[in-house]
Amino acid sequence: MTPRDVHGVVVFQTVQEDARLSIMEYSSVSVFLIGLLLGIVYLEKWSSSRQTEAEMEVDLLEEAGI
Questions:
Q1: CA atoms within 13 A on the CB side of 15
Q2: Rg, the chain, Cα only
Q3: How far apart are CA 18 and CA 7, in angstroms?
Q4: How far from chain centre, in Å, is Cα 33?
Q5: Distance between CA 54 and CA 14 in Å, rounded?
Q6: Tens-level pLDDT at each residue, the chain (66 residues)
Q7: Dist CA 29 CA 7 (whole Å)
Q8: Distance between CA atoms of residues 30 and 34, nearest Å
Q9: pLDDT, tens digit, for every residue of 46-58?
Q10: ∠14-17-23 over CA atoms, to 5°?
């Protein structure tokens, strides 16, 4: 049996349960970090895409003489 402190309450669990919970904790952190990284990459790509569109729009306006 392995003790685990859960919000001030000690819960006893088997070694298998402890290993399973640890794997779930680590994998959930991994999924969060991967999602965060993908979100940052998406925002960077979207931002650079918007800047390119704005530059093209300015070029078109300058060519039109506006």
A1: 0
A2: 25
A3: 16
A4: 5
A5: 60
A6: 888 888 999 999 999 999 999 999 999 999 999 999 999 998 888 776 676 766 777 766 777 766
A7: 19
A8: 6
A9: 776 676 766 777 7
A10: 140
Structure tokens at 14: 């088997």
Let me know how long the chain is.
Answer: 66
Element (H, E) at 4: strand 2-6
Rounded to the nearest 10°, the torsion over CA 34, 38, 43, 48 is 130
What single DSSP character describes residue 55? H
**Spatial separation of the C-alpha atoms in residues 24 and 29, rounded to whole Å:** 9
Continuous H helices in 1-66: 15-64
**Model's pTM, two decimal places?**
0.60
φ, ψ of residue 62 to 5 degrees: the values are -70, -40
Strand partners, 2: 13
